Design the sequence.
């Protein structure tokens, strides 16, 4: 699969703070997805992006599809304890098999 | 709507033993995936099915891993013989059509090889 670089690897944040994470690729993608995984569970889709430059919100989450098609950003506003978990970006390139590649994840821990 | 079902949730075996995982995708979803997730890493694709046909198994270690989806609905992933490095969570995912990016995951099957 494609190589996705996700950063930061982990973060500790204060409850109420805003947090940002990003994902970059050496290849062009036509779809960017952001997932959250809680301990012992499978990843759950948060936001899907399909167009370069697209900015999409889901509650306190906002994600953007980079203009170059090689990056994406996820912002969480006003963090709360339930935001704890691992956030994964995933990208799907222009290809016949629509293969999805995942980043290594950003682990978020909230200090109450 | 029921989600992706996987079993067992947990399995502990010794190296060189065999194990099988089962997945039932969301009803009507033609595309099914098996991913391997090693602790601290993102999911890595093992095999992708479209109905009962294999679309991509390029990253499946075929000397020990096999998967089937005979009737185009549920699927089984088998490992025989298991190695220590196979310890991971095996995630099944499905989606409604090939060209949509939105995968729905099951809770995963956690394998520990001793």
Sequence:
């Amino acid at each position: 699969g494609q190589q996705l670089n996700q950063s930061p690897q982990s973060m500790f944040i204060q409850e109420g703070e805003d947090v940002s994470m990003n994902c970059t690729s050496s290849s062009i993608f036509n779809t960017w997805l952001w997932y959250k995984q809680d301990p012992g569970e499978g990843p759950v889709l948060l936001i899907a992006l399909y167009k370069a430059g697209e900015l999409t919100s889901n509650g306190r989450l906002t994600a953007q599809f980079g203009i170059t098609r090689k990056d994406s950003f996820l912002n969480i506003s006003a963090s709360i304890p339930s935001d704890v978990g691992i956030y994964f970006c995933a990208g799907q390139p222009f290809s016949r098999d629509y293969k999805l590649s995942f980043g290594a994840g950003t682990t978020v821990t909230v200090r109450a | 709507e029921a989600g992706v079902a996987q079993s067992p949730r947990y399995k502990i075996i010794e190296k060189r033993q065999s194990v099988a995982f089962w997945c039932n995708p969301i009803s009507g979803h033609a595309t099914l995936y098996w991913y391997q997730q090693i602790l601290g890493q993102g999911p890595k694709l093992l095999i992708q099915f479209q109905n009962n046909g294999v679309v991509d198994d390029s990253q499946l270690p075929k000397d020990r891993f096999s998967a089937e989806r005979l009737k185009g609905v549920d699927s089984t992933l088998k490992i025989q013989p298991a190695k220590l490095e196979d310890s991971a969570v095996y995630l099944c995912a499905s989606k409604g059509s090939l060209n949509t990016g939105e995968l729905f995951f099951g809770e995963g099957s956690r394998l520990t090889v001793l």
